[in-house]
Amino acid sequence: MSLQNNSSHGILLVDKPLRKSSFYLVHLLRKLTGIKKIGHAGTLDPLATGVMVMLVGKTYTTKSDLFLNDDKQYDVVITLGSSTTTYDTEGEIVDSSQLVPSLETIQGALKKFQGTCYQTPPMFSAKKQNGKRLYDLARQGIEVARAPQQVLLDTELVYYQYPELKLTVHCSKGTYIRSIAHDLGQALGCFGHVKELKRTRSGRFQIQECLDFSSLLEPNFSYTDHLQRL
Asked: What is the DSSP string of 11-38?
């Protein structure tokens, strides 16, 4: 696979900071590069951090399909004991429980999150339904039926100390980690939501390759020195 050579176009890997949107990175790179055609290979929630594959220049934005279907890997910390409207700490608590599941119970429940699974997208998501973003409907207090979608999961328990458990999740395109946290909490009978979320891999691109976000703000930063090309 070979893309047209252009010294100002390429792939810029950035570790997205907490509480910044994916579009914020697009806007910042437009200002930094002077290039209007900038995209990415998969959005992240403002609460999430980690690998953002930024596509700089028309040479790469027009080839976004090469990257959008890539599988992903995440580290997620889930807080048990309550569920929220957004399935993470940004939302309001809607259910709570004092139930403390055992390690064995959690290991058993995680068997449901392996291989081919079906999950329902959260209402607070950018997914479109009948031409409208689900989060726009959710902010109006409207909830609509969402069709479950098939995903492929490989879920590993890293640690558990109530009320927190940490998972590493390898997943296919379109997986909502927040839905995994919510659905796992429901399966355990104690509810749950995402506390921390970090994307550590997107396709072949690893977190270790990513620029720290603060580098983009340095006065003498040269983005072309960090571009990858195919």
From this structure: EEEEEEPTT--HHHHHHHHHHHH--S-E
Catalytic residue among 45, 75, 88, 183: 45
Our answer to whether residue 95 is catalytic in this structure is no
What is the spatial distance between Cα 145 and Cα 64, in angstroms, rounded to a whole number?
Answer: 30
Its pTM stands at 0.92
The mean pLDDT value for 53-58 works out to: 95
Of 30, 24, 66, nearest to 43 by C-alpha is 24
- Tell me how far apart the alpha carbons of residues 172 and 176 are, in angstroms, rounded to a whole number: 10
- Could you read off the pLDDT of 176-222 as tens digits, one per residue? 999 999 999 999 999 999 999 999 999 999 999 999 999 999 989 99
Domains of the chain: 10-69+203-226 (3.30.2350.10), 73-200 (3.30.2350.10)
> Pairing mode, if any, of strands 10-16 and 211-212?
parallel
The whole-number pLDDT of residue 18 equals 96
- Find the helix or strand (DSSP H, E) in which 54 lies: strand 49-56
